[in-house]
Amino acid sequence: MKSLESHLNDFYEGINLESGELSEVKGSRPPETPNWLPFLNAAAVISIIGLTVLGFYLQLKPQPWQQFAEEIAWNHEKGLETEFETQSYGVLQKDMQRLDFSLIRPKKMRKDLQLAGGRYCSVDKCIAAQLRLHDPTGNPYTLYQFKHPKTEALSGLVTFHLPTGTDVTLWREGEVIMGLAQDKKRL
Amino acid sequence: MGAHVSLSATELDDLLQRGFRYAFALTHDRDAAKDLVQEAYWRVARQPEGLWTFAYVARVIRNLFIDQQRKRSLWNRWQQHQSFEEAVMPLHSTEPSLEQALQQLPLQSRELLYLFVVEEYTAQEIADLTGKPRGTVLSTVHRAKQKLRSMLSETYQGL
Known about the structure:
The structure holds 2 protein chains of 2 kinds. Chain A is 34% helix and 26% strand. Chain A has helices spanning 4-13, 19-27, 37-60, 65-78, 89-95; strands at residues 84-85, 114-123, 126-134, 140-146, 158-161, 166-173, 176-183. Chain A has a 7-stranded antiparallel beta sheet with strand order 1-2-3-4-7-6-5, sandwiched between helices. The longest helix of chain B has 22 residues, at 54-75. Chain B is globular, with a radius of gyration of 17 Å. The relative contact order of chain B is 0.11.
């Protein structure tokens, strides 16, 4: 009686490449790798590394929103006089010709804030319009409008509650950054 | 072929035949086994002469086979049933031949059984090749033998 092991050995001994098949295996050549393929692979690897580094860089580099908010809050708290007094954004736009953008009535700001006038200012070395507003009860608000290289990176509303007692909310409308400052708890 | 090895023609033929049998144990398909050996030969031929051993050839074949299985399962979801760990063929209604019985074994069992019985690898050598614990190798081989014996009890008396 043969054992299972013997049967298995016999079975696999019968599994062979025919002599023609054996010659075929030994005589064949591997498919040629296209000359450009290594370069393509290298380019892909470099691209992946580059994108990864860029991703880290963008993620780790702090956005300037906090700095903007602090500048706006500081100017709001100073309460400087306006250079141009008007309740019309259109008139103010004509008065403030040195701006490198068009002043607009913000769409995302509460509607009951009344414009009182404006003056030139700056945020992070960018020329800005500092607008004075007030609500129906007379509380003062300061609205900043300015164009900054980082404008595109600002999405949604970003609010900062600063230790000086001023709240500043930043958002973007078109190519312009809006920054609304007010005394705490009135927004 | 660009391979320059100092194995004799007979030794090289023997190595390729052993590789073919191992590939057959994995695939249970002559054409697929031949393709695996062919590709393994191309790869091994680029390596230094010292690597021209069955252990190395088997490792190359095994890696190629696993790669194939992965690609296949990506493209054909239904073929996941034939994955490396689970491939099982439908049961035969009548007493199967040894070949049919082997085909019914899970792929992993068939591979380990082949290495243990035909190549006479030790459990530790199989564990090193396949990355499975030695105990798993022994129990898998034991269960594979039991299953074969139960399937072949009438065909091969005295197993």
